Amino acid sequence: MKYILLALSFIALNANAIIIRHDVQETNYLAKPDDFPALATFYIDGAHGILISSKWILTAAHTTFCLNSGTKIKMSKGSATVKSLHIHPNHTPGISHDIALVELMGDVAHLPPATLYTRNDETGLPIWFIGIGGTGNGITGITVDNYENKGVLRKAQNRVEEAKGPILTFKFDKGEHALPLEGISGGGDSGGPAFIETERGYQVLGISSRYGGGPSEKYGSFEVYSRVSHFTPWIKEVMDKPDKAVSSGVSLDKLKHLPGGLKPSDLPALCPDILISHEALSK
Question: Which site from 56, 88, 109, 203 is most exposed, i.e. has the minimal number of CB atoms within 10 Å?
Answer without folding.
Answer: 109
